[in-house]
Every structure is written in C-alpha cells, then in structure tokens.
Amino acid sequence: MINGISSLVQGERSRASVGRIALFHAVGGVIGGASMAGFCWLVLTPVRTILPGSVGLALVVGLAICTALSDFGLLSVQGQNRQVPQRWLATYGAEKAYGLYGFWLGAGLATNVAYALEYAVFIGAAILLPLLPALAAGTIFGFCRTALAGPVGVVPRAASAWSEFFRTQRGRLPALSGLIALGLAAALLVVYFSS
Q1: 130: phi > 0 → left, psi -120 to 50 → alpha, else beta; which?
Q2: How many structural domains is the chain composed of?
Q3: What is the pTM of this model?
Q4: Which of 44, 77, 100, 121 is deepest in the core (most CB within 10 A)?
Q5: Residue 78 within a domain
Q6: Does some domain include residue 163?
Q7: 129 — phi, psi (to 5°)?
Q8: What is the tens place of the pLDDT at every residue in 165-187?
Q9: 78: Cβ–Cβ under 8 A, 6 or more apart, which residues?
Q10: Are 89 and 152 in contact (CB under 8 A)?
Q11: Which domain holds residue 56?
C-alpha cells in the first residue's frame, strides 16, 4: 500500500490529493484495527471469562512463541497469500479504495505479510484485556499499520527511502515481528508475576 500511494504522488495527482488518500487509508486502518479487536474480544469472551487468568496468559504467551517461531522460519504454518483487490481502485476511486485497503490492512485480514505481532495483538488483547483497552490496542495497531503511507506518499524523498528500505530489508521484517512478539510475551509474564 505504501508503494501504491507513493506512486500516486509521482503521477498526476497533487500532494493535497495524495494526502487526502493517505488520510482515508489511515482512518480505514484505525477502523479496521478497532473492528477486528472488537470481533476477537467478543469471540474469545468464553476464554477470557471461563478460564482462569493464568490459563489465558499461558495461551497468549504460547501463541506469541509459536507465531514468533513461524516468523523465524523454525515452525511451518499454513500461510495466507492475499492482497486487497486491485480492481477496487477502478471501481471505487482512489479515496474510497485506499480507505477500504486501510480497513483490511488495519484488521490484519488482507495481506501477504502475516507476522506474529498481528496475532499477538488481537488475540492477546482479546484474552487479557477489558473491552476498551482491547479496542485501543486494535486501533493503535491499525493506525501504525497504515499511517506510514501518508508521509511516504506525499514526500518524494521519503517514498524513495521507503522503496530502498523495503527492497533491501524486507527479509528482516518477519524476524523483527517475531522479536517484538517475544518481547510482548516476556513483558506479559513480568507484569503477571510482579503483581
């Protein structure tokens, strides 16, 4: 998405138009992240309310470890290979299409880059947190997943720097996600055992 939005600024669109598109993308990401967090929170209510808190914590830590191992390439799991439909751009126009793209990326549904952190945020928050903090975690996730598109899309120098970073460092992103997921698991354990 970042590369798609940055290509718009190199085309015929003004920076203001691309900025508006990036804003729709980020707002879509916020709504998508909050929606997925709310959905997971509702679906996982039995886990959160019936099982003891220590079991929920063990499930989240176990999930974080398994998905991190997957990101490190040490555990093979069936992946997804989805991207948002390119036809949306022609069907809905740039602003609506990038808003929808943002929604799906913020929700963590339509991407061929499914990292451990995505699962740790949504499922961990759904099992361990009350509704409002879980929604906040999803909102922050959705925003962070889509917000970079704005500056990268509007500033040509940032677009070229992002393209270079993505081209040279893309292979390291799963390991970074795995490390963050393991850090989250460690932090949860520290908080749990210190309280």
Answers
A1: beta
A2: 1
A3: 0.80
A4: 121
A5: yes
A6: no
A7: -115, 155
A8: 777 877 777 788 788 878 878 88
A9: none
A10: no
A11: 2-155+172-194
Structure tokens at 173: 């992103």
The residue type of 95 is: E
The predicted-structure confidence for 99-121, as pLDDT tens digits, reads as follows 888 898 888 865 655 566 777 78
- d(CA 125, CA 11) in angstroms, rounded, equals 40
Kindly write down the DSSP assignment for every residue of 62-117, as one continuous string: HHHHHHHHHHTTSS----------THHHHHH-HHHHHHHHHHHHHTT-S-S---HH
* Cβ within 8 Å of residue 26, ≥6 positions away: 102, 143, 146, 147, 149, 150
Decide if 161 is inside a domain.
no
Q: Mark residue 82 as left, alpha or beta (left: phi above 0; alpha: psi -120 to 50; beta: remaining).
A: beta
